[in-house]
Amino acid sequence: MEENGINEKEVRPIVVGLDIGTTKICVIVGRPNEFGKIDILGVGKVASTGVQKGVVNNIQQTTENIKAAVEEASLKSNVKIEVVHVGIAGQHIRAQQMREVIVRNNSHDQITQKDIDRLIADVERVVKTRNEEIIHIIPQDYIVDEEIGVKQPIGMAGVRFG
Length: 162
What we know:
Blueprint: E1 2-3, E2 6-7, H1 8-11, E3 15-20, E4 24-32, E5 38-47, E6 51-52, E7 55-56, H2 59-77, E8 85-86, E9 102-103, H3 113-127, E10 142-144, E11 147-150, E12 160-161
Parallel strand pairs: 3-8
Antiparallel strand pairs: 1-2, 3-4, 4-5, 6-7, 9-12, 10-11
């Protein structure tokens, strides 16, 4: 169906999901339809031979299995797969809430992206141990001086920022 000379299928993005499990590795290619649901375009599924109890114990074998599942899904969907969304789970994954504070020199200076980047870098240094890797830091909210629950601090003024 075309509207204003634009093919609707070209407008809707292709979405690719990858699940790495203990028994199988699965890749699903889909596209949102006009009803807000995902139409499945193709699936690739192979046995998982490099994962045990949710933990990768043979990275080369797991990589080969992922490539095979991606290739199968690509062929079945007729889509060149370049980006996938991967869910990460297992006993070795944990989430942690942290609160770090930086003290700024001047209470009249506005908070900038540089201040947020500095705060996130400080959190990363505090949390990380030598056997861990931080996948992502997701700020929930901020505190500017005594104001809590701030979602967007850029442009606000304050000395204590966290």
